[in-house]
């Protein structure tokens, strides 16, 4: 499928009722209600706090694709893109007809509704669901496992979001989208099953390089059977980890949302049209591995060295706000920044005109009597 067609489909089918970073059941429920005349929306379980976990199927094809998002409640970009995808698949556009005929999708848009509401990674019992794949101690984990067992997927899409710290390799390139074909044994063997996932990731990477050259990364494949991806991969179901990351000045993750959508449709087009054997996996191995080389802001060459600032995400009145916090004061020549401020050897002051300190929170700084916002334009 040509990239210009995918981008046009995105513009025509973007779910405008979902935006920015805070996406909860309260946000998706009206969307699901509006789709209920076209979809059978199921309640497949409940969270720790008895909030509903929803799921639905789309398509009639023999290739079964299982997708779940917001296992970590504060990772919502892939959820927005799921609803853009759903609108597209329900649009009767001729360009996706072959996908619907070739594939059947089973989608859980928010697996961790309590974490989504609180805007936290963990669930209401303070458990990371992505470390509970073996013990299955949490109701949300049991829901996911039951859905996996009942649907019997041929492919699994494990959908997440990542912080702004990641670079695509050792380069001044933000890892805007990252992938992983998880390991399925301690030796991280490149098994036939993993090769299938790698081949699909390679196809998505090829498409994304046209939009964000050098900004796609992969994660370290160290094996942890407690992780859902490793568990499903070990059960010989090709599993792909998605990580929606940072695009320049896109803290709302709306451009990244489009890039995740491009990844979805590119991969589904490929799966629908091909028998994926894993033979074309090798280009996956050329994708750079993520490194933690970015700060949100670096103030270079202050009187006390470079000042690295990270934005803390906080939920305030049902809105995610970003609070700049001084994370490091040191020589940061080996790190990059999404925004750079030059101090030219001068002292950097806070709002009270005192030198800013490690751990302090500042919306702006003062350098040479100039008030400078720490946020992007």
TrEMBL record:
Entry keyword Oxidoreductase: no
MF-aspect GO terms: metallocarboxypeptidase activity; zinc ion binding
Cofactor: Zn(2+)
A Pfam family per the record: Peptidase_M14
UniProt keyword Zinc, yes or no: yes
GO biological process: proteolysis
PROSITE patterns per record: PEPTIDASE_M14
Protein name: Peptidase M14
Protein source organism: Aestuariibaculum suncheonense
């Amino acid at each position: 499928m040509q990239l210009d067609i995918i981008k046009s489909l995105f513009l025509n089918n973007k779910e405008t009722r979902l935006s920015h970073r805070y996406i909860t059941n309260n946000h998706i429920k009206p969307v699901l209600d509006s789709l209920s005349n076209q979809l059978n929306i199921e309640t497949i379980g409940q969270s720790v706090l008895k909030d509903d976990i929803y799921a639905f199927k789309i398509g009639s094809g023999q290739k079964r694709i299982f997708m779940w998002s917001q296992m970590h409640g504060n990772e919502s970009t892939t959820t927005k893109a799921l609803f853009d995808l759903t609108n597209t698949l329900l649009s009767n556009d001729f360009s996706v007809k072959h996908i619907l005929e070739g594939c059947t999708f089973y989608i859980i848009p928010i697996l961790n509704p309590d974490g989504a509401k609180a805007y936290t990674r963990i669930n209401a019992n303070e458990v990371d669901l992505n470390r509970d794949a073996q013990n299955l101690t949490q109701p949300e984990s049991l829901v996911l496992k039951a859905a996996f067992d009942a649907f019997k997927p041929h492919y699994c899409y494990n959908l997440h979001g990542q912080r702004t710290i990641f670079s695509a390799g050792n380069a001044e390139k933000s890892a805007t989208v990252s992938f992983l074909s998880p390991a399925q044994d301690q030796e991280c063997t490149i098994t036939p099953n993993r090769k299938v996932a790698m081949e699909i990731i390679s196809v998505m990477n090829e498409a994304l390089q046209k939009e964000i050259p050098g900004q796609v990364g992969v994660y370290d494949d160290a094996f942890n059977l407690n992780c859902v991806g490793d568990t499903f991969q070990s059960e010989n179901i090709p599993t792909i980890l998605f990580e929606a990351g940072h695009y320049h000045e896109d803290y709302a993750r709306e451009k990244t949302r489009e890039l995740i959508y491009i990844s979805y449709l590119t991969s589904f087009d490929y799966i629908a049209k091909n028998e994926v054997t894993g033979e074309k996996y090798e280009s996956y191995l050329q994708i750079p591995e993520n490194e933690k080389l970015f700060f949100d802001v670096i103030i270079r060459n202050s009187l006390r060295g470079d000042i690295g600032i990270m934005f803390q995400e906080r939920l305030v009145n049902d809105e995610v706000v970003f609070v700049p916090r001084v994370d490091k004061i040191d020589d940061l020549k080996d790190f990059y920044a999404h925004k750079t401020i030059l101090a030219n050897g001068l002292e950097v002051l806070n709002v009270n005109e005192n030198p800013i300190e490690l751990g302090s929170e500042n919306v702006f700084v003062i350098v040479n009597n100039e008030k400078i916002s720490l946020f992007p334009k």
